[in-house]
Every structure is written in structure tokens, then in C-alpha cells.
Amino acid sequence: MTYDLDWSSIPGALPFLWTGMKVTLRITATAILAGLALGTLLAVMRLSRRRALAWLSAAYVNVFRSIPLVMVLLWFFLIVPALLDRLFAIPRHADTRLASATVAFALFQAAYYAEIVRAGIQAVPSGQLAAALALGMTRAKAMRLVVLPQAFRKMIPLLLTQSVILFQDTSLVYVSAVADFFGAAYKVGDRDGRLVELLLFAGAVYLAVSWTASRLVSRWQERLAT
């Protein structure tokens, strides 16, 4: 028995698929910005001389890096509506799927960004911080104006690579019933009885976007090396 591939469902579904891609890109962009901001804070805390801050940061990073992302998404899918109901009186039946998925991704990715940022900070010669302190800067100001700018320049390729991984991982939001690109492709394939074709098409799109982004990261690394 043979299976004949039929791609005729894809052209008519492109507007719906593009709507799903916009959801995917929105989750990716928001998670990158929020995750990087929180990750930077966690990295600074991890390097703090205050043991309590360092311990809290280490605990956060170790917990989130030890839990599968799909479980985190499920937890937030179930927990966020209850929290919104209790804190802001938002009914539990309100559609918070996109919000819960975005928060879950941001908090999860922050643990990975924190380790990248911490490595970047440690790669900056300690004399830079000492010189800034000698000029009368506070430790916080020296970190913000002297150390972090140099650290980010060193870790941009790693941050971009992690962002590509984040884009790929957004396909897991199907567990929250969010209509992202993968979810949209699955719905169209299931509706038209062409699930194989739509999933192959979705995989090709993820491959094309990820490969292009990876090539750009590689070129960036080459420019930094020269």
C-alpha cells in the first residue's frame, strides 16, 4: 500500500499558517527579551558576594534546568489562570493560554540565559572592574557601564544560538492548545486529512528559519573573530 502526498491543502491554508507563525514569533520575541532581562539579573545575583542572593539564583537555575520544558508549560497552563483569578479577579474561563505559555517560556529560558551571561561576565578581565571601582564607580554602576557591555559582546553568538533553540521549542506550546505555527499546521492537516503533508511542511519551515538563523550566527562569530 502506497501513500500519495498531496500538497494542495497548503496554498489555501497559508493565511492561517501565517497567523500561527506570528503567534510563534511573538512568543519567541517576548521570551527572549524577558528571559534575557531576568537571566542577566540572575547572573549578577549568582556572582554576588551575598550568599543569599547567590544561593537563590543557583537554586532557580538548577530547578528550571532540571525540569522538562513541556512540564513547565503544563504547570503554567494549569496554574496561571488560578493565580490571575485570585490576584486580579480574572475569571478562570478567560483565555490565558498565550499568556501562560509566554510566561513559562520566559522563566524557563531565563535559567539558560543566566548561565550564558554569567560565563560572559567571568570572561571579562577582573582588572576592568577593579579599574572602574578605582575611578569611584559603585560596583553596580561598574557592572552596568563597564563589565556588562564587554560581556554581551563576547556572548552574542551564544545568546543568538539559544534564541534559535527557543524558536524551535515554541512548537511545544501545543500542550497548552495555543494556535502557534505548529498547532495551525496540525489543525489544517487534521481537518483536510493531510496531516503528513502539513507536518512535513511545518518541519521544512522550522528547518529553513533555524538554518538561516544559524548561518547568520556563524557569520557573526567569524566577524567577531577577525
**Hey, roughly how much beta strand do the residues contain?**
under 5%
In angstroms, what is the radius of gyration?
A: 21 Å
Please state the structural category. mainly alpha
Could you list the spans in which at least 5 consecutive residues all have pLDDT below 50? none
Total helices: the number is 8
How helix-rich are the residues, as a percent range?
over 70%
Strand tally is: 0
Termini separation comes to 56 Å
Structural shape? globular
Sheet having the most strands = none
Mean pLDDT metric: 85
Task: Jot down its keywords.
single chain; 226 residues; mainly alpha
Summarize the structure in words.
It is a single chain. With 226 residues, the protein is an all-alpha fold. The chain has eight helices and no strands. The protein has helices spanning 9-46, 51-65, 69-88, 97-123, 126-134, 139-169, 181-192, 195-225. It is globular.
